[in-house]
Description:
Blueprint: H1 3-22, E1 27-28, E2 34-35, E3 39-41, E4 47-52, E5 61-66, E6 69-76, E7 89-92, E8 98-101, E9 107-110, E10 120-124, E11 130-134, E12 146-147, E13 155-156, E14 162-165, E15 171-172, E16 174-179, E17 182-193, E18 199-204, E19 207-211, E20 231-237, E21 241-248, E22 254-259, E23 265-270, E24 278-283, E25 298-300, E26 308-310, E27 314-315, H2 324-327, E28 335-336, E29 346-354, E30 361-364, H3 369-378, E31 382-386, E32 399-403, E33 409-411, E34 419-425, H4 427-472, H5 490-496, E35 505-509, E36 512-518, E37 524-530, H6 538-551, E38 559-565, E39 568-574, H7 581-585, H8 591-595, H9 605-611
Parallel strand pairs: 25-33
Antiparallel strand pairs: 1-10, 2-7, 3-4, 4-5, 5-6, 7-8, 8-9, 10-11, 11-12, 13-22, 14-15, 14-21, 16-17, 17-18, 18-19, 20-21, 22-23, 23-24, 25-26, 27-28, 29-33, 29-34, 30-32, 31-32, 31-34, 35-36, 36-37, 37-39, 38-39
This protein binds 2-acetamido-2-deoxy-beta-D-glucopyranose (NAG) (6 copies).
Catalytic activity: L-seryl-[protein] + ATP = O-phospho-L-seryl-[protein] + ADP + H(+); L-threonyl-[protein] + ATP = O-phospho-L-threonyl-[protein] + ADP + H(+)
Organism: Populus trichocarpa
Protein name: non-specific serine/threonine protein kinase
Amino acid sequence: xxxxxxxxxxxxxxxxxxxxxxxxxxxxxxxxxxxxxxxxxxxxxxxxxxxxxxxxxxxxxxxxxxxxxxxxxxxxxxxxxxxxxxxxxxxxxxxxxxxxxxxxxxxxxxxxxxxxxxxxxxxxxxxxxxxxxxxxxxxxxxxxxxxxxxxxxxxxxxxxxxxxxxxxxxxxxxxxxxxxxxxxxxxxxxxxxxxxxxxxxxxxxxxxxxxxxxxxxxxxxxxxxxxxxxxxxxxxxxxxxxxxxxxxxxxxxxxxxxxxxxxxxxxxxxxxxxxxxxxxxxxxxxxxxxxxxxxxxxxxxxxxxxxxxxxxxxxxxxxxxxxxxxxxxxxxxxxxxxxxxxxxxxxxxxxxxxxxxxxxxxxxxxxxxxxxxxxxxxxxxxxxxxxxxxxxxxxxxxxxxxxxxxxxxxxxxxxxxxxxxxxxxxxxxxxxxxxxxxxxxxxxxxxxxxxxxxxxxxxxxxxxxxxxxxxxxxxxxxxxxxxxxxxxxxxxxxxxxxxxxxxxxxxxxxxxxxxxxxxxxxxxxxxxxxxxxxxxxxxxxxxxxxxxxxxxxxxxxxxxxxxxxxxxxxxxxxxxxxxxxxxxxxxxxxxxxxxxxxxxxxxxxxxxxxxx
Length: 612
Ligand SMILES: *[C@@H]1O[C@H](CO)[C@@H](O)[C@H](O)[C@H]1NC(C)=O
Ligand SMILES: *[C@@H]1O[C@H](CO)[C@@H](O)[C@H](O)[C@H]1NC(C)=O
Ligand SMILES: *[C@@H]1O[C@H](CO)[C@@H](O)[C@H](O)[C@H]1NC(C)=O
Ligand SMILES: *[C@@H]1O[C@H](CO)[C@@H](O)[C@H](O)[C@H]1NC(C)=O
Ligand SMILES: *[C@@H]1O[C@H](CO)[C@@H](O)[C@H](O)[C@H]1NC(C)=O
Ligand SMILES: *[C@@H]1O[C@H](CO)[C@@H](O)[C@H](O)[C@H]1NC(C)=O
């Protein structure tokens, strides 16, 4: 009678699912527990609580998930202590503790409410919060005896707090799941640091991995730019609490913040009823996000190669002088060009960066930028200053001063938002900055006057030509408007670069990769393959290629042509063996050309955009 156990098993399942169907309350009371197979559903059907087995696990856990996306578990009760059988019961005892019992009534997990309450009720709210309250007390009060929002798993739902209760010292932060089948806490955490100004960190153990910039009154500096109508970030700071939270702006759009198993923080959104989750941004964005990537007093830029550079006023220690241990460490840019407090020192503005970490600093939120500069100037070990509060507009208010080394500065990339910082530099750097500014102004003036002359000349020429045209009434041999730079086909370029062989790559960056190749004619070329996500249409790309070709000066490296194949966009240059790689990557259009932006109706800055 082998089929009997199966019959019993299936009929149990059937009965359980019947039970499941008939059970759709949102509360647990001592008389109304939830058994494995049953669920609680919040009033407007947004969240569901019940028993589940994640991934390939055979264990049972109690969790909360989106009703319309049951695979998205947002909270787990017994994450460290799974049930090994299918007979778990979640109930509430007379003292108001939520307790999870296994088949033989062992306590697997308990909520440990702080005080005894009379008519205890646990309720799953529409926010996804499971709360314990007095039956007597009003449903709307925040006076919960216990709530699941106080014990986050890997997900921050709208209204949940990430941060500190200053009265109790309690910290709420996100953990990763250990794996897709194991919700016990993994290595990564996402937490709010509140020394000075609040900053968000992804941490492994106690090691900082990724940092947001300090909260500047509107957002965390250096975080991804999100033009969104989905959520509003909120930072609450008062004497009781400091925490980050957010609220949804459109109730028909769901959003959550999740620290996933690879240690990335993802902001996910679901627009329609069952349209699935879309990641609108994730952190880290790129290599420059790695905490302290460029060491002390270095700045990380994704669009340069190498990505690290010493800040102005610091010189790098030659690599051969670094011992291995310090090679990736913080000593690289530690040497100042001159001693501190030499006469003529001053501050240079470094715009659009993620402000350095708050290690040694001083904060005064009532100063303005001028006072801040004066204060920082007075103290030789003050290495930089910035304003702290951008919400009043202008340069901002408040004063943040850094002492000693500056750690973890990055330049704003296309997808993050930066702030201005003022860095102490020696007189020589100030002089250099001044003279380059003067040069720039001179050049602009020159270009402007030349363009005026050019304008007169061109209009004269046009008049002249039209006059001749009219006079002769001869049909012009209309030369085709020049693609001075020819189009190469993909095969030619593929052959030349040995099918874009990885070992022919001579450089790479955010723009894409540069390959060295050889045409069948024997000519050596450098192929700049732009990354696919540049999002440029064929027409725009061609126009810009024409523009670069027209801009070429005989002293510049030659653009031989371009190649467009489906989504691929490539620029093909003569290969100049004696030129540095940066020359191919960045030096192709000298800065002077950008000055034309002021006078040209064509957007030459877009050329720079293409190149970078
Ligand atoms: C809650 O209180 C009301 C009246 O005060 C009572 O009728 C109800 O049974 C109570 N419910 C629970 C679960 O204690
Ligand atoms: C975590 O998020 C990052 C960024 O969205 C993604 O690349 C990665 O695959 C995710 N990892 C897991 C395990 O989902
Ligand atoms: C809310 O989101 C839905 C779905 O994306 C959209 O159709 C609707 O226009 C949005 N409402 C508002 C007020 O933005
Ligand atoms: C902050 O700056 C103001 C104005 O300069 C000053 O009066 C005040 O004493 C400063 N506070 C601290 C804590 O330094
Ligand atoms: C400069 O600032 C540092 C750090 O706040 C402080 O320890 C030091 O005493 C200050 N020096 C002077 C001369 O004010
Ligand atoms: C930031 O500036 C705004 C506007 O000036 C002000 O209302 C707010 O209180 C300031 N915040 C802090 C923390 O000083």
